Amino acid sequence: MIFHPTELGGAWVIEPKRHADERGFFARTFAPEEFAARGLDPRVAQCAVAFNRQRGTLRGLHYQAAPHGQAKLVRCTQGTIWDVVVDLRRDRPPNGASRRSSCPPTTGCNCTSRRASRTAI
Description:
Number of strands: 10
CATH topology: Jelly Rolls
Distance between the termini: 24 Å
Order of helices and strands: EEEEHEEEEEE
Number of helices: 1
Strand order of the largest sheet: 1-2-9-6
CATH class: Mainly Beta
Largest sheet: 4 strands, antiparallel
Strand content: 25-35%
Helix content: under 10%
CATH architecture: Sandwich
CATH superfamily: Jelly Rolls
């Protein structure tokens, strides 16, 4: 996996490292030790899947205050996801900063953050 740091501390874009052959490819999308090495809690608290029938569907903003925060891992398997992370931590500049990224399934990228609020369309 290739972890691309973002301007928001603790938020990453993770690109699976593909191992391809004539059959297609294989790529890891999660490895606890690689997440932990970057300060991400590797414990899986929940797994979910969403399917949107209509393009442009808004899936909401998720906010979690301490001590209930948890890392989020967002993956797009078909179509394109527009992921937004908003940093609301008061103890770290730049408070209120946001990061937007587009994750088409051709890259297989994941977007993850330690405790940031996010929304995905």
